[in-house]
Design goal:
The complex is a heterodimer of chains A (about 325) and B (about 260). Chain A is built from 15 helices and 2 strands. By secondary structure, chain A is an all-alpha fold. Chain A has a domain of about 210 residues. In chain A, helix 3 packs antiparallel against helix 4, helix 3 runs parallel beside helix 5 and helix 3 packs across helix 10. Chain B is of the alpha/beta class. Chain B has 2 domains: about 180 residues, Rossmann fold (3-Layer(aba) Sandwich); about 70 residues, no CATH class. Helix content of chain B is about 45%, strand content about 25%. In chain B, strands 6-7-8-3-9-10 form a 6-stranded mixed β-sheet, sandwiched between helices. A 4-stranded antiparallel β-sheet of chain B has the order 2-1-4-5, with helices on one face. In chain B, helix 6 packs parallel to helix 7. Classes of the chains: A mainly alpha (about 325), B alpha/beta (about 260). The interface between A and B is medium-sized, with 18 and 33 residues.
Chain lengths: ~325, ~260
């Protein structure tokens, strides 16, 4: 039943570009899918108490590495992607290993990662001769009026095509989530999150377990940053790095629900539609309004709905179904 | 089986454990006792890998394990419990124990084997083996049993039981003591029982090591230790009568049952 519903949902999703919807709708769809993927990647570790406030770092490393290699060395993203992911993994290990080895957890871990996001942002700005600084950078275009698709540069002008790339990426995120969820490592992570000493006492290598999920999360986040860069064909430090971006991830995930598989994606849709709604309603007149509203809503969510919108809905659905199921069985 | 030799732990200028040596024989229940602050918990944590020794050695089946990380000590075959239970509340009861079985076996067993070892361990300590029971419903005694089940699921050769029974009433203390004896009888597991209340322990243990100010002050059979002048002086105080009574009760029951185990 659930499987069938998933399949129908997927087919419906894949049919979207064929329905002749406007580019704007496709753009919203692609954006939700890419950020849904990134938020899912963040939640892989976030749901086990490894709250990172610096995932912007991995986005930035991903997007900038690929673009820099392409722009300055002519290296195709096909090679740039593995290099960028490897770099993100390296940074994740450099940050994660000492934290986990010396038991920096909770708020302290969050603070360390917060610094990381800022360091990457400053690095991008400082290397402005290469990166374009805070003005951002455009990947050298391989597209023209005649060329709508370049395999070498991994650039495509059609939103319809990119939509499928985004769907693929998003499905990858959900698949990884499911793999983690059904693995023994999930139990080890729950245990290590709650009682680190007790987890170690039954044979769990806490450092390795946490590091593995962090590396996985960082690698996928870097992929998301790359996808964003290749889609927008423009990146700047504020959109793929820094505190604001990192906090946006956390807000979206908390709003959507980080303990259910589609929660982060729901959070992506929720925040994007909220931002678009505010933009349409108020234009750009009231600067910083969306940030203020995010902040207020974050407080409200944390107090009243810590499991997020989708998490709450899932729970309501379960409790509503539980008492009725025996009756439907006898009927 | 387990041999502690010259074990020393200093925290800055304070020596918590000083040149502690003792042996634990296979299949034995050893009581490691002493008043609060005597260094027994430190000794326990040095064996379990939670603390790294300043000097001395801990050998298990001939292999040096002093300074190994706790997860490796567990995989080597020494499991521990915690004085204050530390359940994983986000997991079901059975999952708590299955996790221990899987990782305790060095991730070398399958999922179904892990679950069956977990059921076996839960049954041994008389906790429900269904997959639905949550941690919330377990009382203080149930949580203590969970600690034991989780340790046992790792299939240890030695069980380090940090069994402060302080929070339990008399009949619960008796049950806890009986449980350890039951585990030894059923599985032949060697047990080191750390405790500061001497009374009920004396009924079950084969031998005692008594610590005071980080040093071993007495070692031997319960009845001998209980009548040791130094032990009575530094440790038992007003409790001496109670301990003598427990030892006497044990002597009676053993004579009645026709010998020791």
């Amino acid at each position: 039943m659930g499987r069938l519903a998933n399949l129908i949902g997927l087919v419906a999703l894949l049919a979207v570009p064929m329905l002749g919807v406007s580019d704007y709708v496709l753009h919203l769809g692609i954006t939700i899918l890419i950020w849904g993927f990134v938020y899912t990647a963040w939640s892989l570790m976030g749901r086990f108490g490894l709250v990172s406030l610096g995932h912007g770092a991995f986005l930035g490393i991903g997007a900038y590495t690929v673009t820099m290699l392409w722009n300055h060395a002519g290296i195709s993203p096909w090679l740039g992607i593995p290099v960028a992911v490897a770099l993100a993994v390296l940074v994740a290990v450099l940050i994660g290993y000492p934290c986990f080895r010396f038991r920096i957890t909770g708020h302290y871990f969050a603070l360390v990662t917060l610094a990381l996001g800022e360091i990457v942002l400053m690095l991008i700005v400082a290397l402005r001769d290469w990166t374009g600084g805070s003005l951002g950078v455009t990947p050298a275009s391989a597209l023209s009026a005649d060329v709508s698709f370049s395999l070498v540069a991994l650039q495509v002008s059609s939103k319809g095509v990119f939509f499928y790339v985004a769907v693929g990426l998003w499905l990858l995120g959900l698949w990884v989530w499911k793999r983690v969820d059904s693995s023994m490592a999930r139990y080890a992570l729950e245990a290590a999150n709650e009682q680190e000493d007790a987890a170690a006492s039954v044979g769990v290598d806490v450092t390795r377990t946490k590091l593995t999920i962090t590396v996985l999360s960082a690698a996928l986040t870097a992929l998301g940053g790359i996808a964003y860069g290749q889609y927008q064909l423009y990146i700047n430090p504020e959109t793929v790095s820094g505190i604001a971006k990192s906090l946006e991830i956390v807000f979206a995930v908390i709003a959507g629900g980080m303990y259910v598989r589609l929660g982060p994606t729901f959070g992506a849709a929720f925040t994007l539609l909220l931002a678009e709604g505010l933009r349409v309603a108020f234009g750009h007149d009231v600067h910083g309004l969306d940030g203020t509203i995010y902040g207020l809503m974050l407080v409200i969510f944390i107090i009243f709905m810590p499991e997020g919108i989708l998490g709450r809905l899932a729970r309501l659905w379960e409790t509503r179904r539980a008492p009725t199921s025996p009756r439907t069985a006898s009927a | 089986m387990l041999s502690v030799d010259g074990l020393t732990k200093r925290f800055g200028g304070f020596t918590a454990v000083n040149q502690v040596s003792f042996e634990v024989g296979e299949g034995e229940i050893l009581g490691l006792i002493g008043p609060n602050g005597s260094g027994k918990s430190t000794t326990f944590n040095l064996i379990a890998g939670t603390l790294t020794p300043t000097a001395g050695s801990v050998r298990f089946q001939g292999r040096e394990i002093g300074g190994l990380k706790p997860n490796l000590v567990c995989r080597a075959g020494i499991a521990r419990t915690f004085q204050i239970p530390r359940p994983f509340t986000r997991l079901k009861l059975l999952e708590n124990v299955a996790l221990a079985a899987y990782y305790g076996a060095g991730e070398r067993i399958g999922r179904s084997e892990a679950w069956s070892r977990a059921e076996d361990a839960l049954a041994l300590v008389q906790l429900p083996v269904d997959g639905e029971t949550t941690i919330d419903g377990l009382g203080a005694a149930g949580l203590k049993k969970l600690e034991l089940a989780r340790a046992l699921a790792t299939r240890p050769r030695v069980l380090l039981a940090d069994e402060s029974l302080g929070g339990l009433d008399e009949s619960e203390m008796d049950q806890a003591a009986d449980m350890l004896e039951h585990i030894r009888r059923q599985r032949g597991i060697t047990i080191v029982w750390v405790e500061h209340i001497m009374g009920v322990l004396m009924r079950v243990v084969d031998r005692c090591v008594v610590l005071d100010h980080g040093e071993v002050i007495a070692e031997g059979l319960p009845q001998v230790v209980a009548s040791d002048r130094k032990v009575v002086e530094v440790y038992l105080g007003g409790d001496a009568g109670e301990v003598q009574a427990q030892v006497a009760a044990r002597a009676r029951s053993e004579t009645g049952a026709g010998g020791t185990s």
